[in-house]
Structure formats: structure tokens, C-alpha cells
Amino acid sequence: MSYYDKEFYEFHDDDSADSCFLCSQNSSQLFVVRHVKSEKMVHLCQDCMLNNLSEYLLDNTRPWTSKKE
Ligand SMILES: [Zn+2]
What we know:
Elements: H1 3-8, E1 30-35, E2 40-45, H2 46-51, E3 56-58
Antiparallel strand pairs: 1-2, 1-3
């Protein structure tokens, strides 16, 4: 992640790139979403994302960063 990305895509302090922000599961498929309340980016597993659609937004305005790429 570049410095430019960090400025606009600040991740939540408690977020980890390797596990879900909510359930802490080490999912094979994590989504980068924006936590509406804090406006910070977090990683969510599919289940948590679907269960909290009102609180987290998919942010597709910029390419997602992923270790798998
Ligand atoms: Zn989860």
C-alpha cells in the first residue's frame, strides 16, 4: 500500500489484514470495507459483511489491495 493510499484509506486501529475485524476469524476471503461510523477501512469475512451491511460499505472507488494479487 502506498503512502497515497494510506492517507485516504486509513485502516481502523484494531484492524488486521489477516483476520476479520468483527469475528477475528482468519478467513481465506476477506473484504476491505469502510466502517461507516468511524470512516475507517476494515477487513471483514463474508459472513460478517453480509450480516452488517448497514454499518459497512464496500468501497470500490479505488482498487482493493490484497496480498493475493
Ligand atoms: Zn467475520
